[in-house]
Amino acid sequence: MPHLNTTRFAGLMLVAGLLLALPALADTEKGLQIATEQKKRDSGWGDSESKILMILRDASGNESVRRMRTQALEVVDDGDKSLTIFDEPRDVRGSAFLTHSHPTAEDDQWLYLPAINRVRRIASRNKSGPFMASEFAYEDMTSFELAKYQFRYLRDDVLNGVSCYVIERIPADKFSGYSKTVAWVDQAHYRVQQIEFYDKKQSLLKTLQASNYQLFLDKYWRPMLLQMQNHQTGKRTDLKVEELQFNVGRSAADFDVNVLERLR
Amino acid sequence: MTTLAEQLWRGVIVSLLLVAMLLASAIQAAELGPVSKTDTLWRLALQARPDDSVSMPQVIYALWQQNPAAFVDGDINKLRSGSILQIPSRQQMLATGSADTRVWYYQAIGRPQTSGSKLTVAEKPAPEAAQAAAVEAEAARAFSEKSESTALAQPLSEPAATTPASVPATVTAAAPTIAAPLTTAAAVSSGFSLRQQHQGSLQQRYFSQTGSAGQARAHTLLSLLSDFSWQDDSATHSFQLTPFLRWQQRDSASNLLDLQQAYWRFAASNWELKAGNDIVFWGVSESQRLVDVINQVDMVGGVELEARLGQPMLSFKGWNRAGTLELYLLPYFRERLFADPPGRLTTPWPVEHDIALYESSRKQRNLDFAMRWSQRFSALDLGLSYFAGNSREPLLIPQPAAQQLQPYYFQMQQFGIDAQYIAGDWLWKLESIYRRSGPQEFVAATAGFEYTYVGVFNRSWDLGWITEYQYDSRNLQAPVTGQNDLFVGWRLALNDVAGSELLLGVLQDLDRSSSRSARLEASMRLSNSLRLRLNAWLFQTNDSSDVLYQLRRDDYLELSLDYYF
Q1: Which pLDDT tens digit goes with each residue over A9-31?
Q2: What predicted TM-score, i.e. pTM, was given to this entire model?
C-alpha cells in the first residue's frame, strides 16, 4: 500500500512541521504585537519641526558637519510627509528634499536645487544609499511603518540597565540594503534603544544607539541623540536633534511640491 | 501682430477665469452637533476638517468665525453645549493663512506658542476699549453664573471637564471680538527677517590652441552671486534680490551685472503672485533645454547653454487637484548675451546689440506672454506650455563691411510638452516643441531615459546611464547642434564626504558621422564652504555648415573654485 504510506508520511510531516512552526508563529505574533504597540504609542503627534546636526567621523577621526532643518507631518492611513532643508555644507545650502512616503508603494520624492531654481522628481525605489554621506541610509531616515517589515520576537534582554524586548525585523522591501535588523525596544515605553543592521550577506553592518530620550506633549518620547557605528568601515555618525517642536501648525499645504521654491 | 494681440487678450481672459475658478469657493452646508458636554472644540474640529491640507488652527478659526453664538463671549475656551455648529467650507477655512490662525489660536487658548518663532503674542483681536470692558464684564458674569460651556481641550490631552450649569438663553451675545479680522495678529508680527548667502567663483579656462583670430589660450573669470531674501513672519510677503556680477579678463562684452532675481512675492496657501525679475525653469531633459523659453540665455555662462538672465515679469501660479497653472506677462525683453570674439566660445564676428532688429514694432517692450499647466498622474509628470512673444533666439545677419553680426528677433509662438515617467530605477523623459518664428515653422524633440544603478562596484556609488535622442524637423538647416543627434552620458556620484560627482557625455551627430562634442564635468568639496569644479569640452567636426564648426579650435578645460559664504 505505497499510496497509503505516502499519505501517512505526509500527514506525519505536516504534524511535525506544525509543531516545529508553532513557537515560531507565537514569536511572530508577539513580535507584531510589540511593534504595533510601539507604532500606536507614536501616533497622533500631528506635525513637528526640528533642527539637526550630524557629525560624520571617518576611521581616522576626521570630522565633517551637516546641518539641516526638517519638518514632518503625520498622515493617517498613509506614510508621513517630510521636508528637509540643508544648511551645511554650504555648497548645498538651500537645497530641499521632500518626501511623501507610502508604507507599501514607492515614495514620491523631490529635490529642489536653488542654484537653477529647479524642482526635480527623483526615483525613490532604492533607498539603501547613504544620506548626505553619513552612516545613515535614506531608508534609516524614513518613518517606521508596520507594513515595511515582518517581525519576530527573539527574547527579553537588559540593555544599559533597561529591560527590553528584542525584535527581529525583516524588511518587506526587496531593495532594502539589509537582510534584517534587530531592535531593542524598552518594555516600559516601547522606545527603540538600539538597532543592529545586517547587510545582504547576513553580517553585522551597523549599530544604532538611541539616547537622551525626551518626552513631548506628555506622550511622545523622542531621542535627542542617535549614534550610528559602521562596523565594517569604522566610520561613525552622530545625529543630534538640536531643537524639536510639535504642533507648529503645519498642514499638507506646506508639503506641496509647489512651495519648495518658497523655502529658504 | 493683431493675431498675437488677440491671442494675448484671450490668454488674459482665460487666465482671469482660471484664477476666479481657483479662488471660487463651493459652499457647503454641513452641520456638527448638537455639542455634548463631553465634546471638545478640538475633537469637533477634527470631524470638520475636510483634509489635512487645512491645519487644525484654520479649522478652529473658521468654526469660531462661522458660529459666534456657540461661544460664550466669543471665547473659544467656552463652547456652549447643545449648540449646533455650521461647518464652514474648505475655502473659508483656507481663507486665513495657517500661520495667522496659529498665532490667533495660541493666543485664544491663552498659552504662548510652542514654536520658537519670533512671533510675539498678538494683542487680543480687540474691539473698542469700552466694548472690551463690557465684554469682559459679561464674561465675568457668564463665568460667575457658571454658564454651561465646554472647554476647549488642548490637542492630544484628555477632554477637559465641563462646568455644568444652566445657561440663560439670552447670553448669546455675539461677541464683537469675533468680527475682528486676524490682520491684527499679522500686523503685530509683521517684521521682515533677512537671510543672505553668497557665492564667489574664480574660473580659469585653458584652450587647447589659440583661436582662429589669434585669441589667447588662458582666460580668467571672476563672479559673485549674492542672495538676499526678506520674508515676513507669516511668509506672505517676501522680497528676493539675487544680483550676479561677472568679470572676464579678455572680453569686456562678457562682463555682466544682472539681477537674476529682484521680485516681490505674495504667497497664499495654494497660489502666489510675483512681480519683478526671476528665472523660471521648465523641462526635464539633460542634454538640451527645448521647452525652457522664458529666460534669455547667457552664452558666456558656458556652451551647455544653461546660464540664464533674469526676466522682468508679472506672474501668477496656482494649484489644486486639477494641477498647477502658471501665467506670465513679460513686459520687457532681454537680448541674448554673446561674448565678443576675444572671449572665445562665440561667433567669429561680434554681435552688435545696438543695431538689433525686431519684428515687433514695440521691440524690447513687446508684451510677451507665457503659460504652463502641469499635473502629476502617479508616476507620470506632465506639463503643457505656451509662449507668444519675442523669440529668444536671434537670427544673426552677417554685415561683411562692418565685420559684425546684426541680431534679428522674430516674433514667435511655441507650444511645448514635457513629461517624465518614473518606473523603478528608470526615468523616462520627453520634451517636445512646435515653434513658429518668422519664416520658420518646426518641431523639435528630446526623448530618452536615465537609469541609475545604486551601489555599483560594491561601493556606495551611484552610476546613472543617460541616453537622449535629439530631433529637429529643420534637419541640417537647423541652427542648432541637435537636429538628429544621440547623447550618451554617465553620471557617477560617489556619495562620499566630499560629495564627489562626475558626468561624462558625448553628443554624436547621426547625419554627420565626424561631428561630435564631448563634455566632462567633475566636482568635489574641499571644505564646508569650498568646492572645486572641473569642466572640459571637446568639439569635433570637419563640416563648415555645422554649428560646431565655429568652435572647432575651442576645446577647453575649465577649473573653478567656488567659495560659499
Answers
A1: 666 666 666 666 666 677 999 99
A2: 0.74
Residue of A nearest to B419 (CA): A121
Question: What are the structural domains of chain B?
Answer: 33-188 (no CATH), 192-564 (2.40.160.10)
What is the residue range of A128's domain? 40-262
Considering only the beta carbons, identify the residue of A126, A217, A243 that sits closest to B454.
Answer: A126
Q: Do A93 and B319 touch (CB under 8 A)?
A: no
> H or E element: which one contains B182?
none
Look up the CATH number of the domain holding residue A251. Answer: 2.50.20.10
Complex ipTM more than 0.95, yes or no:
no
Between β-strands B357-358 and B404-409, what pairing exists: parallel, antiparallel or unpaired?
A: parallel
| A60-69, A139-148, B366-375: range with lowest mean pLDDT | A139-148
Q: Is residue A193 part of a domain?
A: yes
Q: Spell out which residues of chain B touch residue A65, defining contact as CB-CB under 8 Å.
A: 528
- Nearest C-alpha neighbor of B71 from the set B165, B185, B155, B178: B178
Q: Which residues of B touch A230 (CB under 8 A)?
A: none
How many structural domains are present in chain A?
1
Handedness of CA B494, B496, B502, B503 (dihedral sign): positive
Give the integer Cα–Cα distance in Å for A255 and A82: 7
Select the residue of A76, A88, A246 nearest B528 (Cβ to Cβ): A88
Residue A27 inside a domain? The answer is no
Q: What is the pLDDT of residues B49-107, one digit of tens each?
A: 888 788 888 888 888 888 877 887 777 877 877 788 888 888 888 888 887 787 777 77
Q: How many CB pairs under 8 A join A and B?
A: 136
Cβ atoms of B262 and B275 within 8 Å: the answer is no
- Asked if B197 lies within 8 A of A93 by C-beta distance, the reply is yes
